[in-house]
Design a protein that fits this description.
The protein has 8 helices and 13 strands. With 287 residues, the chain is of the alpha/beta class. The chain has 2 domains: 83 residues, Alpha-Beta Plaits (2-Layer Sandwich); 195 residues, Rossmann fold (3-Layer(aba) Sandwich). A 7-stranded mixed β-sheet has the order 7-6-5-8-9-10-11, covered by helices on one side. The protein has a 4-stranded antiparallel β-sheet with strand order 2-3-1-4. Helix 7 packs across helix 8. The relative contact order is 0.12. The model has no long low-confidence stretch (mean pLDDT 93).
Length: 287
């Protein structure tokens, strides 16, 4: 039987013996650890661990089922959170966009060249402007117009469309609408957003104008998980570049776009490879 690989993510209060017990469990199931990254938070002693392992005698579904049955009984003294993933599974992502195409086109290009460990199931927009750019990639493009009056209906349609295309992760590639708390609770799967500022600075609309008005010397871009609080979800990736008094808002916008594409691609890749673990409102991103 060919080896089959899986990823185990662990999150729990730190205690002696966690690594030993789980390593022994994997060994007992004829699994071999290929890659291991762990971290303990100095502030509260919380432990996170990412393990890539191979099963040498069982299929991935079988070893996932066996691990899933054994892990809850392995630690009686602590609350252990864990997730198991088939390393060969390709997530289905949906890209959402409004009228700015740079982040969308970068992700589509990376997908086309095989750089993303995922399938792009669809592109969804609240405008029809970018359909001609998406068509050559052979990816479905759907338009769901959003107004103040129809927002609830539009989000119900969005939920239905995401279910139809079997979306695993939603990527907001400069989608200039705020997803409601009702939608996020109903959807309950990961949503990644690119915000065109170095959060937590300049939350909300027109951050480059806000940065220009404050005369900042650094501008940035931030990719984060979406929560109900605007632009305040756990941060996955960030980057900055310098600014001077000579830069206009247009200059900052142009230079910021270069950051946005790289930061969003970095965050999406880390998420797809299960290298991001969240604790409270922070992330641990294993390289």
């Amino acid at each position: 039987m060919m080896s089959a690989r899986a990823i185990l993510l662990i999150s729990c209060p730190d205690r002696p013996g966690i690594i030993a017990r789980i390593s022994n469990l994997l060994y007992s199931l004829d699994c071999n650890i290929i890659d291991s990254d762990q971290h303990t938070d100095d502030a509260d002693g919380h432990f996170v661990w990412r393990i890539l392992f191979e099963s040498r005698s069982r299929s991935v579904p079988t070893v996932i089922a066996e691990l899933g049955a054994a892990l809850p009984t392995l630690f009686s003294e602590i609350e252990l959170h864990w997730e198991l993933f088939d390393a060969a599974y390709r997530e289905r992502i949906v890209i959402m966009v409004s009228k700015l195409h740079h982040c969308m086109m970068d992700l589509l290009s990376r997908h086309h060249s095989g750089e993303l460990d995922a399938d792009v199931a669809a592109v969804i927009s609240n405008h029809a402007d970018l359909e001609q750019l998406v068509r050559p990639f052979g990816i479905p493009f759907f338009v769901i117009p959003v107004t103040r009056e129809n927002k609830a209906q539009a989000e119900r349609e969005l939920t239905q469309r995401l279910e139809e295309v079997r979306c695993d992760t939603l990527v907001l590639a400069r989608y200039m609408q705020i997803l409601s708390g009702d939608f996020l609770r109903a959807w309950s799967k990961p949503v990644i957003n690119i915000h065109h500022s170095f959060l937590p600075a300049f939350v909300g609309a027109r951050p480059y104008k806000q940065a220009h008005d404050r005369g900042v010397k650094l501008i940035g871009a931030t990719a984060h998980y979406v929560t109900e609080e605007l632009d305040a979800g756990p941060i996955i990736a960030q980057a900055t570049t310098t600014a001077t008094h000579r830069d206009t808002v247009a200059d900052l916008t142009r230079r910021g776009k270069d950051l946005e594409v790289v930061v969003l691609a970095t965050a999406v890749r880390a998420h797809l490879q299960k290298r991001v673990l969240s604790h409270r409102n922070r992330t641990i991103v294993f390289e």
